[in-house]
Amino acid sequence: MAHLDLILVLLNGLGLMALIALAFGTIERLMSDPALKRWLHAPVFAMGTVAAMLSPAHLADGIIVDTRCVIVALAGAFVGWPAALVAGLAGAIYRLGLGGAGAPVGVATIVLAAGVGLIWGQLYRHGQTARRRHLVVLGLLVSAHIGLFVLLPLPDPLGFTLNLIPFVVPTYVAGVFVMGSMMQRETRMMRREQSLEVDAFTDALTGLANRRAYDALIAEELAQGRGADIGVSLLVVDFDHFKQVNDTYGHETGDEALKAVSRILRSCVREGDYVCRHGGEEFTVILPQTGLPQGRRTAERIRHAIEAAPLIAGDRNLSLTVSIGVAGAPQHGDDPNTLYRCADAALYEAKSAGRDQVVVYGRPQLREIVSLDEKEVLALAS
């Protein structure tokens, strides 16, 4: 009868593990912040650990067997130390509260399981690089805690332990394998979805944010900037004579030029600014909390940096230049379409005025062409 009770308890434990794996997947999908996810997982595994001890198999006075160690180990293996710590503490406190002759050994098994899970998680990047055989190994390592049962105050602790092995070890290995596989699947699906989402907002050639991302970013920044003392500056950057580069040197060289300019644009802006490839040879730069004077200086810094960094194409050095239009919110409009039209109009005037320059959009009847002298450029570059 004791063996039958043990089998039923272990099978119920497998069902509990499946529920925890489903909760794990839900949190992975709904939460984006990694730190927040780890701490949200912690109470789930803690409750699962305690739940595993609510209906254990009572094998002797004060001695119980359940699936708590599998849950604690998987908390460390797939989530990390926050979940392992919280689940381990919850399990240890509850086991001590149950009392009995097996309480000290029961707590020791929890500590051992947490340690095994954490080490395994470090080795296999919390399951990301683990294969199925590695899950089996984890199950066997977690099962090894049964060796501590020889310390139980029983007439024949070794015989007691050997009798448990055929029941506990296969169940623990199966539990780790099934629950671990479910958690792996959820993690991989989540990462695949994140990758697809990133791809949807990223330009494949340059790695910059694409037009779709620009639309979302500019709308968000303008909404946040409404009512602020300092608004948002928008730069529209366009290659000069880019068609000639493609026609003369080929599209491969043109692509290299686009990637080179992308790198320069990134290097010329602050952390928190956004560089986007708007389409073709046109780029946009969103400068949050930036007034027009600073936006103009950033545009001139970009123009000068591109002009000073020729593209090497075979045995040739190609001189690249850009024209840049600058507009600012709220002066020129506080909605995305109006602000872009103003910056694009300034860009058009820069092209019409001879290219390789920065134009700041002014009132409809006044657009100022900005050209810093060499001394100012050197000061900006330093």
Question: Can you give a write-up of this model?
Answer:
The protein has 382 residues and is α+β, with helices and mostly antiparallel strands. The protein folds into 2 domains: 2-200, Arp2/3 complex 21 kDa subunit ARPC3 (Orthogonal Bundle), CATH 1.10.1760; 211-381, Reverse transcriptase/Diguanylate cyclase domain (Alpha-Beta Plaits), CATH 3.30.70.270. The protein contains 13 helices and 10 strands. The strands form 3 sheets. A 6-stranded mixed β-sheet has the order 4-5-3-8-9-10, sandwiched between helices. α12 links the parallel β8 and β9 (358-360). The longest helix is centred in the middle third of the chain and has 44 residues, at 157-200. The chain is elongated, with a radius of gyration of 31 Å. Residues 363-382 have low confidence and may be disordered.
